[in-house]
Structures are given as structure tokens and as C-alpha cells.
Amino acid sequence: MSRTYRDEYQAKLITAEEAAKHIESGKHIAMPPGAGEPRALSQAIARRAEKGEIEGVQVDNVYTFGTSNPLWDSKLKGRVILTSLFVCAAQRWAIDEGVGEFTPIYYQDCPRVYDRGDRPLDVFIADVSPMDKHGYFTFGAALSNSQSCARAAKKVILEVNEKQPRVFGDGFIHLSEVDFVIEDHHDLPEIPEISISKDDEAMAQYIVDLIPDGACIQIGVGGVPNAVCKFLHNKKELGIHTELFGDTLLELIESGVVTNRKKNIHPGKVICTFALGSRKVYDYMDDNPGFESYQVDYTNNPYVIAKHDHMIAINATLQVDLTGQCCSESIGWRQYSAVGGQADFSRGAFLSKGGKSFLCLYSTARNGTISTIVPFLSQGANVSTQRQSVMYIVTEYGVATMWGKSTRERAKELINIAHPNFREELNREARKMKLL
Question: Domain count of the chain?
């Protein structure tokens, strides 16, 4: 590290408490998702709010993991206004009570909303890897839309964390672009192991049978994704271009199933926009030339995704109507999560040569009392993925093909994979709707 950068770094180095004083009442701030949330700075801002020193601070957050960030605490209601782009467990109370806000947006468009000036930012805060000798930090495991937020914000404050991995790609930010730095070397959030049910395994096997050797995959977190990865160990020469990177994908790399050699673009490299997993995941990313992170307007761009032959997108949904419309983000009118990158990858896989997009759901909810395949979506439910872009719907009872099918054919396919207890009722409703 040159003396110039070292001196400039020291000149910008302040404590978390001093940094928090730059967050004033009524200001609009943003932070990266998950592992990129600056812990010490968030705590210092929360303490100011709790003391009544600031109020009406609006915080944009793409995705949070767990409940550890004190800014989501209900005792700060009114003082911190959460604006979520993907509602998570720690934030649902605010949306439910009407004191938080939700922004409907495709994940790929999150950077553009800041680049275009549609969401003016006062301060951007982020957890980053230590500065290198050239004066660069990286956004580590949580790039997402951080570059755009940093460009848009009037002030940038970075929390330097030696446990944040240094990641290649386009997630670099230079010291000259930063107003203040603080230091806090805390552990990154880790996802506990997710159990796999028999239903997860059944869905996974249906999907895996339709994945060819040499395919490029995108997959999320949960029982079905874990099961899919478990059954993929018999495949060869797979590649990874994904939104979220985690332990199950790392296991495929370590087993030799994923080589990335067959990828049309970025051959030999894993591409993602953020990661959540065990410490093992973060260590794998660190300083690894075979791993690159790009901003989400690139990773989730359907036309970039479509450049991969045999692109396979595997995502979850909550409810499907008999024509193939999918609600993946709300329970009726209640905002439960968000569309995330589901629509982005569904469309990208749809456009890929030999690509396939799978939307998975259990056939029932509420302990088997209701069907998730329904004649029409619940009142207030959001259409997360349009029926025109849906290719395959998967339950524990099989795979329904939507692509190229008429509404009558779709209804038949979906009823065949519904829970047996509800098939007669669905048939009756489909006839009323002139679908059968």
C-alpha cells in the first residue's frame, strides 16, 4: 500500500459513533443485502434513533438475513422507516403494520432506479473487504446494487471488515470515492443447514431428470434447491451463473460436477451477485480468480442469462392458477417476500438455447388444508411471473408443462400435479371456467 493511500485512509478513518452522526433526521440511506450490512454502523445509527437524536430516517434494503440488524427493531418505529425491496422475516412486522414500505421492482432493475436518479440517496453504507495496495476495497459477498448506490449517494461510508472476502469482478470501490471509513471485524451471517423433506426430494428428482450434462444452473436456498444439488452429483460439466451463491453450489464445485468449462460466457468462472452461506462459502470466494461477482443489472439481465446454452433456472412460488399465473411474493394482499430474480431468470432461461425454467411449490399449504394450485389467484395476490414466461411447474406429484400449451392443456397438466384431495374440486371449477 502506498504511503499516499495509507495516509488518506487514516485521514478518513473515524469511529462508528462519529460516522452515525452523519445520518441526520429525514435522510435517505441504503445498504447492501445480507453479508454486506455494516454491523457496527447499523448499531450506532440505531442507538442514535433510540435516544431520539434522529427520526424519519428512510433505509433502503434489498435483502436481510436473520433478525440481527437493530435497524429493523420495532422499538425504532417512526424513527427508522424501512423501505424493503425484498420483504424478509425481520421486516414483515413493519410492512404488516403499515410503518414500513415495499418497493415492487425486478431485481435486475434495482441499480437503474438509483442510476436514473429516481431514488435520490443521501448516504450509502456498506461492509467491505480491506483496502488493497492500490486503494481498492471490494463489496465482497454482497455486491447486488452497491455500485449504483455508491455513485448515487451524496456521501459514502464504508465499514472495513477483515472477514469480508475480497472478490473479483466489478465489485471494487476506490478510496477516492469514499467519504469515511470505520473498522469492525465481525463474523458474517451464516445460513444454518436446511433439512430436506421427502416432498423436496420428489420435486428435485423430477427436475434433475430434465437437466442435461453441460447445463448452466441458477438456484436459490431452501429444501428443494438442496435436494436438487444432492441429486445433481451424477451430472457432468455443469456451470454456474446465479443470483445467489451458497453451500449447495459449492458442494457441486468441490465434487467436480461443476467445472464451468461449457459456459458460453465467463468460461471457467462462477458468476453471482451476492452470497450467503457458511464461512466455507466466504473463504472460497476470497481472492479466487475462478469466482466473480457482478452487479445485479448484469447477472440478472435476461439477455445475459440467455447467452448460456441449456440455462436452468430453479425457483419457488407460493400459488399457481389453472392458466399458469404464479404468485411468489404475497399471501393474498399481504406482502410476504418479493419477486426477486425469479422473473429475470425465468425469462432468461426461456430465451436460452435448450434452457428450462422450473417454479416449485408444495401442492398444499396450512397443514394440507388448502391447495396451492387454484382456479384463480387469491384476492389481492400479485402476479410475480406471468403465464407467458412460465415453462414448468413442479410439485411433489410431478411436472406440469406450460410452455406451448393452451389454457385447456395447462389446466389439465396442473390438475394432474395437484394434491389428490383437491383434484375433483379443481376439475369442477375448471369446467365452470370453460377451461375443460
Answer: 2
Question: For the whole model, what pTM was predicted?
Answer: 0.94
Last-in-domain residue among 149, 183, 217 = 183
Q: How far apart are CA 290 and CA 284, in angstroms?
A: 10
Q: Decide if 190 is catalytic.
A: no
Q: Judge if 247 and 169 occupy the same domain.
A: no
Question: Which residues of the chain carry a pLDDT beneath 50?
Answer: none
Q: Is residue 188 one of the residues assigned to a domain?
A: no
- Both 231 and 364 in one domain: the answer is yes
- Distance, CA of 207 to CA of 232 (rounded, Å): 10
pLDDT given for residue 2 in this prediction: 62
Determine the Cα–Cα distance for residues 87 and 101; give it in Å rounded to an integer.
Answer: 9
Cβ atoms < 10 Å from Cβ of 19: 25
57 beta partners:
80
Cβ(78)–Cβ(50) below 8 Å = no
* 101 and 226 co-located in one domain: no
295's CB contacts (< 8 A; 6+ apart) are 111, 143, 144, 145, 146, 147, 148, 170, 171, 273
Which residue of the set 37, 243, 396, 413 is catalytic? Answer: 243
Domain harbouring 7, CATH code: 3.40.1080.10
Domain that includes residue 50, residue range: 3-183
pLDDT of residue 241: 98
Instruction: Please report whether residue 357 resides in a domain.
Output: yes
Residues 6+ apart with CB under 8 A from 187: 163, 279
Q: Are residues 204 and 168 both part of a single domain?
A: no
* pLDDT confidence of residue 183: 98
